[in-house]
């Protein structure tokens, strides 16, 4: 019996030891799985934290870059607005300056055209005076005076040519020096007025000299004329001084404009620097945008990789957890099966114990007999219990030593409780063995009860331990799973936030890319404005060069004035010499005075004619205005047929009426054709003209031209020069009548000179041949003189006209009263 109990006790101890080993192995596995899971979770958390830190740092960097880009954009907008304001101001000032320059240019052009007309008048007067002096053979004194006048007029012509060249240069430049050119034109006009005054004074002095008898009075008048010329020279000096002051003022204005130009250049330099800075900012912004694109791409890849890692980690963790749970479930099932086997064994042992108890009951008697043997066995059991206690202590020490150092206090306490329970069970067994002697009578019932209680308590403890271990494992896994899910959720939130930031950054990048073309357009506009300002600066530089040229021209005028003063002194000396020789010229002075008076009258009349015709000279430049009076055409045709179709008259008609070569050839071919009825009808008016109607008689019948015309009655042909002179006399009378209504006549006007003009023309008719008259007619422009002129060479006619080239129209040679 004791042997069986010992075997049962040993079996119980072995079962407890195996249970302890299973519990320790289970705890070790659980600890290792917990450590592995914690390491994996910590590594994943570290990786996620590192990724989040990197994402946070990158996002912070992107936010800083975005703020910097916004700040640069604001600076660019402010800079562009400032540049636009400056450009608007520059365009306004440039427009005002251009408008002022255009007005000044138009005014200068008008005044210089008038100056050109006056210059042409002076040249015409000079040519007429020279021709008259050569034709009439004036005295040496008058030739000297004419040479002086010619020299002065030549100087004035040179001055006016210089001013005209200046006008051409200034008109091409159209700049700020137009004011100085305008002043030069005024100065030239004042010079012309001065010379005209001097000429009139000289003519008046010569007219007064005609009425004086003594040479002393003539000498005194010459001295007065010299004094007047000296006054004129002084006046010219004053004019030059004023012109110099005006040029200095224009130079000051040029300096001021140069200062403004420098300021504009500085502004242009600043604009260029700002444009370069803007380009650099744009390039840096483009590079930053490219870097942002690249970083966004890398972040996308990193996020995708992180998501893949999280997915893999979730899968691995789920698989590991499932495998661990399945393994634990299998172990629990195996443990439960082993426990069930142990229970079955215990039941079998209990049955065997029952049988043994029956046997013991039957062998009670034998037990008493074998009490001694039991006593001995008890001693052996005690020794065995002591050995078991020692083994248990040793096993406890080894279990404590073999326990994992990282177990928590609860696990150690639980293990100690289990060990204590095992010790208590062992002590109970020892106590039971101690009480075996005393309870031999109740051994059967007590052993069965103890065995049942021990089996039930052991099963309950095993189930409780397994259930507790499973609950702890499940709770730990649930907590870790909840933590992992929370971490994954945080990572998902961070990922969504990163995606939203990425979308915002992409929107900002798109906005920057859309703003880049507008920025490029603004830069191109700034470059265009910069080119315009550069062109204006170059124009101002050219203006400064022209200002220097104007100064050089003023210096030339000053030298010309000095040379004119020298010539004036020479003329004064010649006048003194002529005054000493004037005593021997009294006899010829009367004739010369008469000739001079006539020349003065002609000069006054020609001056007026030239002045009126030069005012209308510009109208003759237009080919469409080449109109010829109808009566002049009739006169030419009559002369052509009266002179038997003379070649010289045909050439004159071709020049005046603008015939082409083909027209001349056709007329000459028609001239050789046989005569017929049409030719006889066409010749009837010319036969009538051969009878010399009274309307074409000369005004002075006693003149040489009249005698010449009377001499030509024999052959019934009238000279074209006589007809032309008669025609001019009538028109001169009409011109003098119209001049009374237009303006007040001067001292040498048409009324005072009409008689002399009539005598001159009558005298000229005697010495002028028909070819000369034709040449005088041909020397005029093809279209005649300007509208409203009353020249003896081109008089006014009724409105009916004939236009060269065929075609009739309204004549511009009309009466001034005709609107």
From TrEMBL:
<dbReference type="GO" id="GO:0006888">
    <property type="term" value="P:endoplasmic reticulum to Golgi vesicle-mediated transport"/>
</dbReference>
<feature type="region of interest" description="Disordered">
    <location>
        <begin position="694"/>
        <end position="716"/>
    </location>
</feature>
<feature type="compositionally biased region" description="Low complexity">
    <location>
        <begin position="697"/>
        <end position="711"/>
    </location>
</feature>
<feature type="coiled-coil region">
    <location>
        <begin position="481"/>
        <end position="515"/>
    </location>
</feature>
<feature type="region of interest" description="Disordered">
    <location>
        <begin position="774"/>
        <end position="819"/>
    </location>
</feature>
<feature type="coiled-coil region">
    <location>
        <begin position="329"/>
        <end position="453"/>
    </location>
</feature>
<keyword id="KW-0175">Coiled coil</keyword>
<feature type="compositionally biased region" description="Polar residues">
    <location>
        <begin position="24"/>
        <end position="46"/>
    </location>
</feature>
<dbReference type="GO" id="GO:0007030">
    <property type="term" value="P:Golgi organization"/>
</dbReference>
<feature type="compositionally biased region" description="Basic and acidic residues">
    <location>
        <begin position="1"/>
        <end position="10"/>
    </location>
</feature>
<keyword id="KW-0333">Golgi apparatus</keyword>
<dbReference type="GO" id="GO:0005794">
    <property type="term" value="C:Golgi apparatus"/>
</dbReference>
<dbReference type="GO" id="GO:0031267">
    <property type="term" value="F:small GTPase binding"/>
</dbReference>
<feature type="region of interest" description="Disordered">
    <location>
        <begin position="1"/>
        <end position="54"/>
    </location>
</feature>
<protein>
    <recommendedName>
        <fullName>GRIP domain-containing protein</fullName>
    </recommendedName>
</protein>
<feature type="coiled-coil region">
    <location>
        <begin position="98"/>
        <end position="180"/>
    </location>
</feature>
<feature type="compositionally biased region" description="Low complexity">
    <location>
        <begin position="212"/>
        <end position="226"/>
    </location>
</feature>
<feature type="region of interest" description="Disordered">
    <location>
        <begin position="202"/>
        <end position="226"/>
    </location>
</feature>
């Amino acid at each position: 019996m004791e042997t069986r109990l010992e075997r049962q006790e040993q079996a119980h101890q072995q079962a407890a030891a195996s249970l302890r080993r299973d519990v320790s192995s289970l705890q070790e596995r659980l600890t290792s799985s917990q450590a592995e899971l914690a390491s994996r979770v910590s590594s994943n958390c570290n990786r996620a934290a590192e990724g989040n830190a990197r994402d946070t740092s990158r996002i912070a960097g992107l936010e800083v870059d975005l703020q910097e880009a916004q700040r640069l954009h604001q600076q660019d907008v402010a800079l562009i607005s400032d540049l636009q304001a400056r450009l608007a101001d520059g365009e306004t000032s440039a427009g005002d300056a251009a408008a002022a320059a255009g007005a000044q240019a138009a005014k200068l052009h008008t005044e210089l055209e008038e100056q050109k007309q006056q210059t042409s008048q002076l040249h015409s007067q000079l040519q007429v005076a020279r021709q008259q002096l050569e034709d009439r053979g004036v005295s040496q004194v008058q030739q000297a005076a004419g040479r002086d006048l010619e020299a002065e007029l030549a100087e004035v012509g040179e001055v006016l040519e210089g001013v005209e060249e200046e006008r051409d240069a200034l008109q091409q430049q159209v700049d700020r020096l137009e004011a100085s050119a305008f002043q030069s034109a005024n100065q030239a006009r004042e010079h012309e007025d001065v010379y005209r005054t001097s000429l009139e004074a000289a003519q008046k002095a010569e007219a007064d000299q005609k009425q004086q008898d003594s040479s002393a009075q003539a000498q005194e008048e010459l001295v007065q004329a010299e004094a007047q010329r000296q006054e004129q020279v002084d006046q010219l000096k004053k004019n030059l001084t004023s012109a110099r002051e005006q040029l200095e003022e224009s130079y000051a204005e040029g300096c001021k404009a140069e200062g403004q130009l420098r300021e504009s250049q500085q502004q242009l330099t600043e604009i260029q620097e700002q444009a370069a800075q803007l380009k650099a900012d744009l390039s840096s912004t483009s590079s930053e945008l490219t870097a942002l694109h690249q970083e966004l791409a890398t972040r996308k890849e990193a996020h995708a990789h992180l998501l893949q890692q999280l997915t893999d980690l979730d899968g691995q963790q789920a698989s590991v957890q499932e495998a661990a749970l399945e393994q634990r479930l299998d172990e629990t099932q195996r443990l439960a099966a082993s426990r069930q086997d142990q229970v079955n064994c215990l039941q079998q042992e209990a049955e065997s114990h029952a049988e043994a108890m029956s046997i013991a009951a039957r062998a009670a008697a034998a037990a008493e007999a074998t009490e001694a043997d039991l006593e001995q066995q008890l001693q052996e059991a005690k020794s065995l219990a002591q050995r078991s206690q020692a083994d248990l202590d040793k096993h406890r020490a080894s279990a404590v030593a073999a326990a994992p150092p990282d177990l928590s206090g609860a696990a150690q306490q639980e293990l100690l409780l289990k060990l204590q329970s095992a010790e208590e069970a062992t002590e109970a067994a020892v106590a039971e063995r101690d009480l075996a002697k005393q309870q031999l009578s109740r051994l059967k019932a007590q052993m069965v009860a103890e065995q049942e209680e021990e089996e039930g308590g052991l099963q309950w403890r095993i189930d409780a331990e397994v259930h507790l271990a499973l609950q702890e494992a499940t709770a730990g896994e649930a907590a870790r799973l909840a933590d992992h899910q929370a971490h994954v959720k945080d990572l998902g939130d961070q990922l969504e936030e990163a995606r939203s930031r990425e979308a915002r950054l992409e929107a900002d990048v798109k906005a920057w890319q859309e703003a880049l073309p507008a920025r490029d357009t603004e830069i191109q506009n700034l470059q265009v404005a910069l080119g315009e300002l550069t062109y204006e600066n170059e124009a101002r530089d050219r203006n400064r060069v022209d200002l220097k040229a104007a100064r050089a021209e003023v210096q030339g005028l000053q030298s010309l004035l000095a040379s004119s003063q020298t010539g004036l002194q020479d003329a004064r000396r010649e006048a003194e010499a002529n005054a000493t020789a004037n005593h021997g010229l009294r006899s010829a002075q009367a004739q010369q005075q008469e000739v001079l008076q006539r020349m003065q009258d002609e000069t006054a009349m020609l001056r007026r004619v030239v002045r009126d015709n030069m005012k209308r000279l510009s109208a003759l430049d237009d080919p469409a205005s080449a109109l010829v009076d109808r009566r002049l055409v009739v006169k030419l045709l009559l002369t052509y047929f009266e002179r038997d179709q003379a070649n010289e008259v045909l050439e004159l008609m071709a020049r005046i009426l603008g015939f082409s070569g083909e027209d001349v050839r056709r007329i000459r071919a028609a001239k050789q054709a046989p005569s017929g009825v049409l030719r006889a009808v066409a010749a009837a008016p010319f036969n009538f003209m051969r009878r010399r109607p009274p309307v074409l008689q000369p005004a002075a019948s006693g003149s040489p031209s009249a005698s010449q015309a009377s001499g030509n009655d024999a052959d019934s042909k009238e000279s074209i020069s006589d007809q032309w002179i008669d025609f001019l006399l009538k028109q001169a009378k009409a011109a003098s009548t119209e001049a009374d209504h237009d303006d007040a006549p001067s001292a040498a006007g048409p009324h005072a000179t009409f008689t002399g003009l009539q005598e001159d023309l009558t005298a000229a008719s005697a010495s002028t041949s028909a070819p000369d008259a034709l040449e005088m007619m041909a020397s005029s422009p093809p279209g005649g003189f300007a509208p409203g002129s009353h020249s003896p060479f081109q008089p006014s006619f009724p409105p009916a006209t004939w236009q060269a080239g065929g075609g009739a129209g309204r004549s511009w040679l009309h009466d001034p009263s005709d609107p």
